[in-house]
Write a structure and sequence with these properties.
22 strands, 6-stranded mixed sheet, 282 residues, single chain, mainly beta, Leucine-rich repeat, LRR (right-handed beta-alpha superhelix)
């Protein structure tokens, strides 16, 4: 039995070492040491070391970080084209990030960086993955370049956001009518909002986690164009006190859509619609 246990521990340690492996390190233009993996001849920023414990997100990185366009290793230069999952997971002392102009994809890289107050996303980025900036409560504004063609649930729990702008010319997403939100253009689907969002009357659906953890949101008007609100859309909006729904018939909503919203939140509906809403589960 002991022999089997020792073998299991050895396997788990080997898996952990492989999971947290890196190819090389280099000093960033801002002075911090970053770690990289080489993938198909290009460099990916990987998890940051934490001394003797190779656990992502427990590093001593702090201050303003500049991720370079390229990095040198063994006498050769490699373009830095991606930021991997967990690369800066819970690096709470980072205050600002400037991302190099050759980066095309950002994974779940900055999840939980609560001290991050600004991030510059270059026009080279095409993909911003799930969890990329989740729980970055210090972020107040974000600009999505016109190059981006995919955005996952990337800003959930960013409770300090007051400004969200998609640059003009983006063919996949927009911030129509200065709404302070990210809308998937072809579906008229609002995928990310913030405490100052005004939902346009052209939006037909509010997506999963769109306002998740937006504790600063105190009131929201849901226009009559909205026919569905997806699960967790307003979960943990702990400051939400008033919801105005302009549709005569309630939009479809799943069980956890408003989970964590105060029980004393007021719902205002059109005259004559109370009976329809009263028989609809929130």
């Amino acid at each position: 039995m002991k022999k089997k246990l020792f073998l299991l521990i050895a396997v788990l340690l080997a898996v952990g070492q492989n999971a947290f492996a890196y190819d090389f390190s280099a000093v960033a233009p801002s002075g911090q040491t970053l770690y990289y993996n080489l993938i198909d001849g290009e460099a990916q920023v990987t998890y940051q070391q934490s001394g003797s414990w190779d656990i992502p997100g427990y590093s001593n990185l702090s201050g303003s970080l500049v991720i370079p366009d390229s990095v040198e290793y063994s006498g050769a230069w490699y373009a830095v084209t991606s930021i991997g999952n967990n690369a800066f997971h819970y690096c709470n002392d980072l205050t600002s990030v400037t991302i190099g102009g050759l980066v095309t994809s950002i994974g779940s890289a900055f999840n939980g960086c609560s001290g991050l107050t600004s991030v510059a996303i270059p026009n080279s980025v095409t993909s911003i993955g799930n969890g990329a900036f989740n729980e970055c409560s210090g972020l107040t504004s974000v600009t999505i370049p016109n190059s981006v063609t995919y955005i996952g649930s990337a800003f959930s729990g960013c409770s300090g956001l007051t400004s969200i702008v998609v640059e003009a010319g983006n063919t996949h997403y927009d911030s129509r009518d200065s709404c302070n939100a990210i809308i998937q253009t072809d579906l008229n689907l609002l995928i990310q909002g913030c405490m100052t969002t005004i939902i346009p009357n052209s939006v037909t659906s509010i997506g999963r986690y769109a306002f998740f953890g937006c504790s600063g949101l105190t009131s929201v008007t849901i226009p009559n164009s909205v026919t569905s609100i997806v699960n967790y859309a307003f979960e943990n909006c702990s400051g939400l006190l008033n919801i105005v729904c302009e549709s005569v018939y309630p939009p479809s909503a799943e069980n956890n859509t408003f989970f964590g919203v105060p029980a004393y939140c007021t719902l205002t509906v059109p005259c004559g619609s109370l009976a329809y809403y009263s028989v609809t589960a929130p």
